[in-house]
């Protein structure tokens, strides 16, 4: 009996010893496993904390005009900028020992497990703020052991590599508050119309209660349940020492104003401009679609909200509701190239096609100032005389002909000056000048002015038969307005990433492209379209606008069978306007032909209100003299019409007009007597060339 007992004891001891060693081995393996997990977590380093965030587009005054269209509102706020009441309320209700544990609250886990066991169901959660943050960042919300293990591993990585404040900041910026609002900043703006740093205790305690069940505890779903949850949070805050007991009643009784609206509308403010900004982010800054939509970018733009509204209101007011005619408008600061207003069509909801940037249309006579700049470079002056009469140009040994016409087939049937040809928009003068310079000259000049659209080397190019974009014309005219400095249309001044780091900043060029004296002379000639003193065989093309304008402007209108243009500038603002039909339909109604001019004039006048009236300042190397417009010679006191005209110094006329002198007949006779004595060399070169 004793022997059997001893054997049984030995056998039991053997089993116990084996179990002990097995336990030691398991403990060792567990310790090694934990150490391995910790080492592996450390080797992997900090997990990336980037989450999808809404990108914001802002006007030049910092006003948010739009955001990315991903359906989720996410804006990052720094912990130091958040309401302390919101931070305390969140910690109190979600994880009161957050600053003490290492990512796992074991006491809370045990309590939750016991409660679940008693109820035989999942009735209590034990996830810490770090665990919830890990889940929001990296994991789906399915209830599986695999997800739980991954959540635990990411929790370890977060705790090992980030401070508690960094984790809390990330959590508050990623937790879902319902109604598409991710993060406290988006939620604060949606529910209360304010930044998270401005929340009161009452607002913060109500907001902190929503994440437990956004569809249940949102004040928009059930104000009663939201208030009940708020009271629990306030009581917990008092128990944890965050607030006094009296604060509970004060907060509960505070009358809250629930907004229930996201602050930024994507399409109401300058939708065509916003589309152009997104295109620039993608095509010019080379940002990918995901970064643009969910990268939390802050895009600072050049848009002037006041001028944009004026532009939109002007288009709506002037274009008849019974007409299908479309429009494109671009307004720019000529010194910086900043686009201050942009209209790409009459109704973005009906058509998002941006006619200010995407449409390539024939510019008509608005190309002529560029042609005449090239002419000035090649020896012409504003007083250069060319014959205006019906002309047929023959090419290829007479096999090809080109017969341009003036508007309404009106001609001077004599010589006119360049300044008058521009003011009257004489086509014969333009084509003759173009052919004299060589067809490649205008092509090269257009490129110099920053226009990248293809130009055809043909005689009709002088009349604007090769298409360009509205924004290109605005950019080209800006170079005339700013004295010839390099300038390109700018939509974006700066871009910041979600961390507030500047990833792009526009740098204005100061390179001199055009000759300042020639740019000014050209710009001053362009003021002539509004000056009736340059009326000749027809009225100046801006005569219908002259009485509406209250300050000096330079400009040029243009028209083809299918396109109507008006572009011009003051020293402070350049605006180009196009009107026409999308499908290239002919513009036949008289009312449709004046829309571009009317839009331009009204916009410029309204946009300049409050600005100092400035004239065009003559640079060094130019001289202004009074010219008699018909002859292009220096005006005398007897000339009934005279106009101040600028020339490059040394090219101004030196001969006085003799047409209005008392001894005119005698003088004319003397000139006739000596006419035969002049040789061909005495005739100016441009008159010899333009004899046809």
Automatic annotation (TrEMBL):
Residue ranges, annotated region (Disordered): 655-681
GO cellular component assignments: outer membrane-bounded periplasmic space; plasma membrane
GO biological process: cell wall organization; peptidoglycan biosynthetic process; proteolysis; regulation of cell shape
Biased composition (Basic and acidic residues): 667-678
Pfam families: Transgly, Transpeptidase
Signal sequence bounds: none
Keywords of this entry: Carboxypeptidase, Cell membrane, Cell shape, Cell wall biogenesis/degradation, Glycosyltransferase, Hydrolase, Membrane, Multifunctional enzyme, Peptidoglycan synthesis, Protease, Transferase, Transmembrane, Transmembrane helix
Catalytic activity: [GlcNAc-(1->4)-Mur2Ac(oyl-L-Ala-gamma-D-Glu-L-Lys-D-Ala-D-Ala)](n)-di-trans,octa-cis-undecaprenyl diphosphate + beta-D-GlcNAc-(1->4)-Mur2Ac(oyl-L-Ala-gamma-D-Glu-L-Lys-D-Ala-D-Ala)-di-trans,octa-cis-undecaprenyl diphosphate = [GlcNAc-(1->4)-Mur2Ac(oyl-L-Ala-gamma-D-Glu-L-Lys-D-Ala-D-Ala)](n+1)-di-trans,octa-cis-undecaprenyl diphosphate + di-trans,octa-cis-undecaprenyl diphosphate + H(+); Preferential cleavage: (Ac)2-L-Lys-D-Ala-|-D-Ala. Also transpeptidation of peptidyl-alanyl moieties that are N-acyl substituents of D-alanine
Segments forming domain Glycosyl transferase family: 62-238
Residues covered by the Penicillin-binding protein transpeptidase domain: 329-604
Domain of life: Bacteria
TM spans (from-to): 20-41
GO terms for MF: penicillin binding; peptidoglycan glycosyltransferase activity; serine-type D-Ala-D-Ala carboxypeptidase activity
Cell compartments where the protein resides: Cell membrane
PANTHER family from the UniProt entry: BINDING PROTEIN TRANSPEPTIDASE, PUTATIVE-RELATED, PENICILLIN-BINDING PROTEIN 1B
NCBIfam families with a match to the protein in the record: PBP_1a_fam
Family from the record: In the N-terminal section; belongs to the glycosyltransferase 51 family.
Protein name, entry field: PBP1A family penicillin-binding protein
């Amino acid at each position: 009996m004793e022997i059997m007992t001893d054997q049984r004891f030995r056998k039991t001891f053997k089993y116990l010893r084996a179990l002990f060693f097995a336990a030691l081995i398991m403990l060792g393996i567990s310790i090694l496993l934990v150490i391995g997990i910790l080492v592996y977590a450390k080797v992997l380093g900090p997990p990336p904390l980037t989450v999808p965030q809404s990108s914001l587009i802002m006007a030049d005054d910092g006003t948010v005009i739009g955001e990315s269209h991903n359906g989720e509102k996410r804006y990052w706020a720094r912990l130091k900028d958040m309401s302390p009441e919101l931070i305390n309320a969140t910690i109190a209700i979600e994880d009161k020992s957050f600053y003490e544990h290492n990512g796992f609250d074991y006491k809370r886990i045990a309590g939750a497990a016991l409660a679940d066991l008693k109820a035989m169901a999942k009735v209590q959660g034990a996830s810490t703020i770090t665990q919830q943050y890990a889940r929001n960042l990296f994991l789906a919300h399915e209830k599986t052991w695999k997800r739980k293990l991954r959540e635990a591993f990411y929790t370890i990585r977060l705790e090992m590599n980030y401070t508690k404040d960094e984790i809390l900041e990330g959590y508050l910026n990623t937790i879902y508050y319902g109604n598409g609002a991710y993060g406290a900043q988006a939620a604060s703006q949606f529910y209360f119309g304010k930044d998270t740093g401005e929340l009161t205790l009452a607002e913060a305690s109500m907001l902190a209660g929503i994440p437990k069940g956004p569809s249940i505890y949102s004040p928009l779903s059930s104000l009663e349940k939201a208030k009940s949850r708020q009271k629990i949070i306030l009581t917990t805050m008092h128990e944890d020492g965050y607030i006094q007991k009296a604060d509970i009643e004060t907060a509960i009784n505070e009358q809250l104003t629930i907004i229930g609206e996201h602050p930024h509308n994507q399409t109401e403010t300058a939708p065509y401009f916003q589309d152009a900004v997104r295109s620039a982010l993608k095509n010019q800054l080379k940002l990918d679609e995901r970064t643009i939509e969910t990268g939390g970018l802050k895009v600072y733009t050049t848009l002037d909200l006041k001028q944009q509204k004026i532009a939109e209101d002007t288009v709506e007011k002037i274009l008849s509701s019974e007409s299908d005619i479309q429009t494109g408008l671009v307004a720019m600061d000529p010194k910086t190239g900043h686009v201050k207003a942009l209209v790409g069509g009459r109704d973005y909801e009906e058509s998002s096609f941006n006619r200010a940037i995407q449409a390539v249309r024939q510019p008509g006579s608005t190309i002529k100032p560029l042609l005449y700049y090239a002419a000035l470079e090649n020896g012409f002056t504003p007083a250069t005389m060319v014959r205006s009469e019906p002309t047929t140009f023959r090419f290829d040994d007479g096999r090809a002909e080109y017969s341009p016409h003036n508007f309404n087939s009106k001609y001077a049937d004599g010589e006119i000056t360049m300044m008058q040809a521009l003011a009257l928009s004489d086509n014969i003068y333009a084509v003759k000048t173009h052919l004299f310079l060589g067809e490649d000259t205008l092509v090269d000049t257009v490129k110099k002015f920053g226009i990248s659209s293809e130009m055809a080397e043909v005689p009709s190019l002088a009349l604007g038969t090769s298409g360009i974009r509205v924004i290109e014309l605005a950019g080209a005219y800006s170079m005339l307005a700013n004295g010839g400095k390099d300038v390109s249309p700018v939509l974006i001044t700066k871009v910041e990433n979600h961390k507030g780091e500047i990833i792009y900043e526009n740098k204005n060029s100061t390179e001199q492209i055009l000759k300042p004296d020639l740019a000014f002379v050209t710009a001053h000639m362009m003021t002539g379209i509004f000056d009736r003193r340059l009326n000749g065989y027809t009225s100046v093309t801006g005569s219908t606008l002259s009485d509406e304008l209250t300050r000096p402007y330079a400009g040029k209108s243009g028209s083809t069978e299918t396109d109507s243009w008006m572009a011009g500038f003051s020293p402070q603002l350049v605006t180009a306007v196009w009107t026409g039909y999308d499908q290239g339909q002919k513009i036949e109604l008289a009312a449709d032909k004046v829309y571009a001019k009317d839009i331009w004039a009204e916009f410029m006048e309204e946009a300049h209100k409050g600005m100092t009236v400035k004239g065009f300042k003559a640079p060094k190397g130019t001289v202004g003299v009074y010219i008699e417009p018909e002859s292009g010679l220096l005006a005398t006191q007897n000339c009934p019409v005279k106009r101040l005209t600028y020339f490059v110094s040394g090219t101004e006329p030196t001969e006085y007009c003799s047409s209005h002198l008392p001894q005119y007949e005698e003088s004319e006779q003397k000139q006739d007597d000596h006419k035969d004595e002049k040789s061909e060399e005495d005739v100016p070169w441009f008159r010899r060339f333009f004899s046809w």
